[in-house]
Amino acid sequence: MITLTGFADEISPDLDVQLDVLESESIRYLELRGVWGKNVLQLTEEEALTVKERLAERRVGVSSIGSPIGKIQITDDFETHLEDARRAVRLAKFFQAPFVRVFSFYIPDGDYEKHRPEVIRRMQRLAQLAEREGVVLLHENESHIYGDTGERCLDLLQTVSSFHLRAAFDPANFVQCGVNPFNEAYPLVGGYASYIHVKDAIMGKGTVVPAGDGDGELRELIHELSRRRFSGFMSLEPHLRAAGKFEGFTNPELFVVASKAIKRLLAEQAMEWN
Question: Is the CB of residue 152 less than 8 Å from the CB of residue 191?
Answer without folding.
Answer: no
